[in-house]
Specification:
By secondary structure, the protein is α/β, with parallel strands linked by helices. A hairpin with a 5-residue loop joins β4 and β5.
Length: 733
Amino acid sequence: MISFILQVFYAVFSGLALSLAIPGSIYTFGIPSLGLISLIPFYIAIFSTKKFRQAFAISSIQILTVHLASCWWLGNFRGFGIFALGASALGTAFEGGCCGLFFMLPYMKKEKSVSLRDSFKMDHTFMIKRALWFSICYVVWEYIKSTGSMGFPWGTIFMASYRWKLLTQIAAVTGVWGITFIMALTNAFLAEGIILLITKIDSVKFRKDLIQLKALGKVTAFLFLVSLLYGSWNYIFTGKPVKHVNTVIVQQNRDPWETDESETIKVSMEQTDRAFKIFEEKNSKADLVLWSEGVLSHKFPGGESFYEDYPAKQSLSSYIKEKSTPFIIGGDTLIDRKNKLDSNSAIFYDAKGKYSGFYSKMQLVPFAEYVPSSDSPLIKYIMDDIVHYGSDGWEPGFQHVLFRIPLKSQKYQETPLNYGAERYTTIPLDKNGNSDSSVTEKYRKNTRENPSAFVNFTTPICFEDTFSSVCRNLYNSGSEVFMNITNDSWSKTPVAEYQHFVVASFLALEYRTTLVRCCNSGYSAVVLPNGKIMADLKPFTTDVMAVSVPVYQRKITVFSVFGDYIAITGLIIILAVLLIETLSPYIDKDKLKRLSRLTVTISIKNSSQEIEDQKISFSEDTDTTDSAASLLEEKKTSGKSKSSASKVKTAAKKKSQASSKTQPEKTAAAKTSAPKTTARAKTTAAKSTSAKTTTEKAAAKKTTAAKSTASKSKSSSTKSRGTKKAAPGKTKE
């Protein structure tokens, strides 16, 4: 019991340390170095467990502590803070407890009296395996916590790394999960060092464990070094912008739940006027105006006619037309009139003050913008009649939208002649030597739209900017810059504003693009592709930014292609281990060993048989080649003898007999008569097919065949000279 109490203390201490490491009330942007040691108590506690229920309890306590200590501002939500904070805390704790069982999987079949720490020590590489397993499980836990319809990526350890810009650059390759893995592995390495110092008993075992610890330290240091080198390069050499979009970012500091809509629009117009004057002083013009989430309350597309007359002093449509600039404004859209389904949207107005379309939020906030399982009668009864919260919420968006606007500064710039040009072409002249005017015109002026004169952007809404499942699709649709609109005013505290910003800032790193955040109460900012803040506004202040937002060459990063592959790979590893551990009791290991031995034996026999077959095939091919050579030699001898046609036929018969001989016997057998030779040749051919033939016998038979052929040639030549006299004047050969 005392041991378990100590484990609970470690879990609580770890949760408090992690809460202090991430951005919060004490340190606005967190303490990265504290993040490297905040999981050490949790590591020691989780690997001292002996049962699944202990692992579940310890993980739940640690996660619950982090959530309550870092996200306490959820209690300020619309008068239902206790429900919002309580429901999310219990749900997160249960989810964390279930993920805490991952740590037990490789040792689920061990004796219940043995702790995880002792189970690992049964292996000579226990320390490295334990640290890597912990890091993988922690990555998977944060991934599960941060994705899906119930995702809430707050209270995560990668948030603590925000100030270490050289380390966070790897997000373009691994996403935030690579950062989580490195920080978790560092915690594991340090924890192993502490455990080794505390538990050392005999010097021999201590030296062996110290070797493992050094190896683990080298792996951790190597990952850190590679990440820092990669980060240094990308942080310093960000590149030059290819164009700029002059953007007005309005922070009106009005809570749409507490402020009248007309007041919010009025303040937004006043701040917009200020920004236009700033641009005029710089001899430039605004290209885009951003108003935050939740400014407009009347639902579109019907709201288009409403805002042609509202506000009364100057309608919204007429004001936008006056500014002659496109607007993005947060509002509502009625996407299904029959079923009364509306969505949280970014409303798009053109430069003439006409409603042009919208993008609807796809990742809704659970228990804030929608209630999970709200179709269930029980959930509906609880939310409507008991909690009095309302089970009806927004409907998620149905498409990814790319907005495209012109840049006023590039309006009269000609399109480069090389833009969109064909890789191969022909410039022809007719038969009179005259050129084709239609072809020549392409070399005077490019009629295509100049890409530098337009900018493509997407508008993730509120905490969508923390979800790769949404932003990855938006970016891959062709987005050159993210224009986020957010409403965090309900939190009533800068802590929530900064935490949201920190999680969202990794979006710029993951896709190497600029992130613009327009929030009604903050934290509004412009973040460059290397994570640096270009411009910002203090939270809970009424202010505006007139910023020439740099747009960089669009890059296809590893993360934009493969997404959360690091976390998904870790999840696959965990599931594979679970499958193996589950099926292991049903597998007879002795049968597997016997089967493996039998397989090896059969393989060896098959290999030996293949070698013998190759030897036999080689022997037969060699005999056939020797027979062909003897025939060729006999042809030459017959040509020199100048024998008659009848003699040629006789020689042909003898050659035929020679070709039928596959395996001649000894040299003495070659001197016998032709019938005997043929019979013995057949006998030799039968013997050659046996598996006992060796390479030495084949060589001897080659020599015998050659001598037999030579003997026959001499015999044939002698008979020919005996029956026919030599020609006059020629010597006898």
